[in-house]
Design a protein that fits this description.
This protein is an alpha/beta fold. About 35% of the residues lie in helices and about 20% in strands. It has a domain of about 190 residues: Divalent-metal-dependent TIM barrel enzymes (TIM Barrel, Alpha-Beta Barrel). Strands 5-2-1-12-9-8-7-6 form an eight-stranded parallel sheet. A two-stranded antiparallel sheet has the order 3-4. It has a two-stranded antiparallel sheet with strand order 10-11. Helix 3 packs parallel to helix 4.
């Protein structure tokens, strides 16, 4: 009997340290074979020189690890005259002149090729002053980026990010319907969807056909807002979401993005154990 594909776990080393080695070693310890690269040495992945990228790939190869995705900051930007709020872009500027953006897109795709990653994350422009907020759908750079990615065997995936213009299910579906045929898919952050009140079964079913990658983090509600915690221990309704995603895609990558600062290794270990028990069909 032919074996059915199973979902895979992905670990981001910079959740532990600016040095990728401790995170890679934890991945090996936990039996996780895939990495998501977002930053290293305090620098954003798309700002790293090629020799540094090659070194990261060598470190991964030495441990039998592959790079599943480049968590780039593309389109998590605004014009220089705009006023962004508090935004975490991991060492990348939020104000990017339009004339500089194509070079960053090409650099991100090149970084993915060097690292051997089939996926590059994108966002959808920061929400700033209404008169300065740019629209993602129809951005001529998007079509150009999708073509560049396609020619190099890389796929762009759009993350639903509340500080960006495309974060709610309705706008996500509109954009994905328009560009899915050109290769754009969904980098689904379930906690972000829950933050905007839409991590419901109906919404997950509607988005599921477009999902190519899943970000997993969790948080508990507090009087002051929220506090990040290991996956499965917070308010994000993974018990309802994971079976629906598995029904649509029996073999998805699930990337742990803990954001727990006090004991990130413990949080990642607990999150990996939770996903292995909660994803139907098994997870490698």
């Amino acid at each position: 009997m032919e074996e059915l594909p199973v979902s895979t776990l992905v670990l981001n080393p910079d959740e532990l340290s600016p040095d990728p080695v401790p995170g890679m070693n934890l991945a090996v310890k936990l039996g996780i074979g895939s990495l998501e690269i977002r930053s290293a040495g305090g620098a954003n992945v798309i700002a790293l020189p090629t020799d540094r990228l090659r070194h990261i790939r060598t470190l991964a190869d030495e441990r039998g690890l592959t790079v599943a995705a480049v968590a780039s900051p593309l389109w998590k930007w605004c014009r220089p005259e705009a006023t962004p709020g508090r935004v975490d872009t991991f060492g990348f500027p939020t104000r990017v002149p339009p004339e500089e953006r194509l070079a960053w897109i090409e650099r991100a795709v090149q970084a993915a090729v060097v690292l051997g990653a089939p996926i590059v994350r994108v966002f959808s422009h920061l929400r700033v002053e209404p008169e300065l907020t740019e629209q993602f759908a129809g951005d001529p750079l998007l079509a150009q980026a999708l073509e560049t990615a396609h020619l190099t065997g890389v796929r762009l995936l759009l993350e639903n990010e509340p500080v960006c213009t495309v974060a709610h299910a309705e706008s996500l579906i509109q954009v994905l319907e328009r560009y899915h045929g050109q290769g754009l898919a969904l980098w689904l952050d379930v906690a972000n969807l829950h933050e905007v009140g839409q991590a419901t079964p109906d919404t997950i079913r509607a988005l599921a056909p477009y999902v190519g990658y899943v970000h997993v983090k969790d948080y508990q509600l507090t009087d002051g807002g929220r506090a990040f915690c290991p996956a499965g221990e917070g308010a994000v309704p993974y018990s309802a979401v994971l079976p629906l995603l598995h029904a649509a895609h029996p073999a998805l990558p699930y990337a742990l993005e803990t954001h727990v600062r006090d004991a990130p290794a413990d949080a990642l270990t607990a999150g990996a154990a939770f996903l292995r028990s909660a994803v139907p069909g098994g997870i490698a």
